[in-house]
Design a protein that fits this description.
Layout: H1 3-33, H2 48-51, E1 66-67, E2 73-74, E3 81-84, E4 89-96, E5 101-105, E6 110-113, E7 116-126, E8 132-133, E9 140-147, E10 153-162, H3 167-173, E11 183-190, E12 202-207, E13 218-223, E14 227-229, H4 231-238, E15 258-259
Parallel strand pairs: 1-8, 2-15, 10-13, 10-14
Antiparallel strand pairs: 3-6, 4-5, 4-11, 5-7, 6-7, 7-9, 9-10, 12-13, 12-15
Length: 260
């Protein structure tokens, strides 16, 4: 075969191989960019600040925290928290978002905190608890997320301990199992007053979302007394969520923690 032809074929093979490698490299780079946060391994909470570049995850007012009762101070504002929950709260859907089981509410129920109204948006779960009270970690923590018209957030944190069966959690359990990424339409009434949060003592502090982007615009209301749910109810939720879907404790950094 003519040497010029051999040289030409060799050049073509090298060019095609280079293009293939470049495409593979580009794919790997794209995959690296799309790396998503999780609760384990290289994308666990310890690395959120690295992989979520435009987030607040490295901020100084992060959540969750360990609340030490004897370092808190009394809330001076009288009747700063008011609940307007109905026995006929409407749920729209439930989804497994890969991080937790989340129930979304239709617009209706609300709370008032420090003279601002926040509407109940959704409820989700962490096992074990993210917040600690006097160093104690609870089997489960329930977050009720409320949003104002100005996109401010007030999140209720309710701890759970194992004991008797809860009618409310039996309702939640009835929609499980739910595969990762799966959504179910509900459009049913729910008596959220079953949590009995009225007149409960609570702690308050300014913090952040406990998942990326860790935005530091959250009023945290952490109730002192836990609710009681059964072991079966805890396990039913656990089987449908990532193992240990909690963020590690964050520094308080001089923030004041209030109690009522």
């Amino acid at each position: 075969m003519d040497k010029k032809i051999i040289l030409f074929l060799f050049t073509v093979i090298m060019v095609l191989g280079s293009c293939k490698n470049n495409k593979k490299s580009d794919h790997l780079d794209e995959h690296a960019v799309q790396k998503h946060w999780s609760y384990h391994g290289e994308t666990s909470p310890e690395h959120w600040m690295e992989i979520e570049k435009n987030s607040d995850c490295g901020g100084t007012a992060q959540s969750p925290i360990n609340i030490i009762d004897n370092t808190t101070v009394p809330i001076e504002i009288k009747d700063s928290l008011q609940l307007y929950y109905s026995p006929k709260t409407l749920l729209s859907k439930v989804e497994n978002n890969g991080h937790s089981i989340q129930f979304d509410f239709e617009t209706g129920d609300s709370i008032q905190f420090n003279n601002e109204v926040y509407y109940l948006k959704q409820i989700h779960f962490h096992e074990p608890s993210e917040h600690k009270i006097n160093g104690v970690t609870y089997p489960i923590e329930v977050h009720l997320v409320h949003m104002s018209k100005n996109n401010g957030l007030t999140v209720f944190s309710v701890m759970g301990i194992e004991g008797e069966e809860s009618q409310l959690f039996e309702f939640f359990k009835s929609f499980l199992p739910l595969a990762n990424g799966e959504t179910k339409e509900i459009h049913q009434q729910l008596d959220i007053t079953g949590l009995s949060l009225e007149n409960r003592g609570y702690y308050f502090y300014s913090g952040s979302l406990t998942t990326p982007p860790c935005t530091e615009n959250v009023n945290w209301i952490v109730f002192k007394d836990p609710i009681v749910i059964s072991l079966d109810e805890v396990l039913a939720l656990r089987k449908n969520m990532p193992l240990n879907n909690y963020r590690n404790e964050q520094p308080i950094n001089g923030r004041t923690i209030y109690h009522k």
